[in-house]
Amino acid sequence: MAWTQQRLAAARACVVLLVVIACLFMWTAVLSFDPLDPPSPHVYPHPDPCRNAGGLAGAFVAYKMFEYFGKGAYAAVGGLTLALLVFASRGRMPSLWQRVLGVSLLIGVVSAAAHCLTDPTAWPEQRGGVLGFVVASWLQQSVKWMTI
Q1: What is the DSSP letter of 128?
Q2: Angle at Cα 22 formed by Cα 111 and Cα 4, nearest 5°?
Q3: 135 near 108, Cβ under 8 Å?
Q4: Radius of gyration of the chain from Cα atoms?
Q5: 10 Å Cβ neighbour count for 41?
Q6: Among positive and negative, which fits the CA dihedral 113, 119, 124, 130?
Q7: Is 33:52 a contact under the CB 8 Å cutoff?
Q8: 36-46 pLDDT, tens per residue?
Q9: CA proximity to 138, closest of 116, 106, 107
Q10: Which of 48, 73, 89, 117 is deepest in the core (most CB within 10 A)?
Q11: Residue 64 pLDDT > 90, yes or no?
Q12: What's the start-to-end Cα distance of the chain, in Å?
């Protein structure tokens, strides 16, 4: 193997290792999300210690993901995990833009569905987040316009 190919293989292995660590951290943070943890404005004082298994950093990451994506946060972390598996097994990501578009649409659909199907009195983090609200509102306006 040539010197540049060895460097490329080492760089690929480092990238895969870093993304594996990031995926594990994000799954830990998202699965142990508690809306009462410190970044939340819904309660004061916050529980001490933080209930998230990822600590304060995990609570912050999970809160922001649920704030923006709602239940679509699971789809976002799942998409990152699938991308990692494809990159680790093949060494490259074929048709990257199509995969990014597909995962983005999946996140939007999951967020909008969670917004529409969840109790309206629930906190936004437990529904579809900002993305779910925007997509669901746009879809509701579009359907209302089409039925007139």
Answers
A1: T
A2: 125
A3: yes
A4: 19
A5: 7
A6: positive
A7: yes
A8: 888 888 778 87
A9: 116
A10: 73
A11: yes
A12: 67
Q: Are 146 and 91 in contact (CB under 8 A)?
A: no
| Residue indicated by tokens 């659909």 | 109
Q: What pTM was computed for the model?
A: 0.85
Instruction: Give the pLDDT confidence of 84-120 residue by residue, as tens digits.
Output: 898 888 777 778 899 899 999 999 999 999 999 988 8
The pair of three-digit structure tokens given for residue 107, joined into one six-digit string: 């996140």
Q: How far is CA 75 from the centre of its chain?
A: 6
In the prediction, which pLDDT does 112 show? 94
Specify burial of residue 136 (Cβ count, 10 A radius: 0-12, 13-18, 19+): buried
DSSP secondary structure code for residue 102 in this structure: H
Spatial distance between the Cα atoms of 69 and 133, rounded to a whole number of angstroms: 9
Instruction: Provide the 3-class DSSP secondary structure of residue 127.
Output: coil
The 3-state secondary structure of 26-92 reads HHHHHHCCCCCCCCCCCCCCCCCCCCCCCHHHHHHHHHHHHHHHCCHHHHHHHHHHHHHHHHHHHCC
